[in-house]
Amino acid sequence: MAFHTGKNGAVKIGAGTSAAVAAVQSWSLDEQAETVKGWGMGDAFTTSETLMRSWSGSVECYLDPEDAAQTSLAVGATVALALYPHATASGATYYSGNAVITGRPISASKGDFVSITFNFEGQGALTTDTVA
């Protein structure tokens, strides 16, 4: 079994997902499925059926106001987003789709760099692919 570290992961945005977001510290992706449950009299277990699927997540970065990619992640913006868990090299798996930026909390403390988090919700399908 192969294990990976996130050290060489990345987040890219834009057409062809060519612009790397600067100073990414972490990202998360959450895929969900809404379900409906049903059962009949005398049944011991429910039956679940999928209705709709969705995805959302966040990207945490050190704030870099000079980074064009960070600047373009404004609340309400829809962007092409690609999330690379462990590498951007040929053969690496990544997740991509269009997402709307739903929030941008900024945090500062006296003992650390200023950080910004970009919260997003997927618009349409999330694709899992391999870097060519």
Could you explain the architecture of this structure?
This is Phage tail protein. The two termini are 22 Å apart. This protein is 4% helix and 55% strand. The chain is mainly beta and 132 residues long. It has one domain (6-130): Pnp Oxidase, Chain A (Roll), CATH 2.30.110.20. The model has no long low-confidence stretch (mean pLDDT 95). Strands 1, 2, 3, 4, 5, 6, 7 and 8 form an eight-stranded antiparallel sheet that branches. The longest helix has 5 residues, at 68-72. The protein is built from one helix and eight strands; from the N terminus they run ββββαββββ. The chain is globular, with a radius of gyration of 18 Å. It has one helix spanning 68-72; strands spanning 10-13, 19-20, 24-38, 47-62, 78-84, 93-103, 106-107, 115-130.
Main attributes?
132 residues, Pnp Oxidase, Chain A, 8-stranded antiparallel sheet, 8 strands, globular
Summarize the structure.
The protein has one helix spanning 68-72; strands spanning 10-13, 19-20, 24-38, 47-62, 78-84, 93-103, 106-107, 115-130. By secondary structure, the chain is mostly beta strands.
